[in-house]
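Trying the structure run again after the queue cleared.
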Amino acid sequence: MGSKAHNHEPPFDIKFKILLLGESTVGKSSIMRCLTGKQFSPGLMGTIGVDFEKITYVIQGKTVMLEIWDTAGQERFHAITKCHFRDSKAFIFIYDVTNPQS
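Done. Tokens:
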């Protein structure tokens, strides 16, 4: 196993693609920023289409790469985001506890 597609990508033993899903404005981008060690920004712009970040960990001597994909919550982007479901290992569904409709 390992990365062969891009030379600028760090080598890894295992890769997991994780999608963040949920309605618009529930905080998917903010959660992705927290997961990847970036500073929380309350005025963060909404995602258009998809955005992703990579983070690596060494666990029991193996390098694990997480690709965390932030999908747009707006209905008009659903066709775009569906193609990114392929090869995903996990989905995290995010909702706003103050908004039952989310």
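The CA atoms of residues 29 and 70 lie 6 Å apart. Worth checking whether this holds up in the mutant runs.
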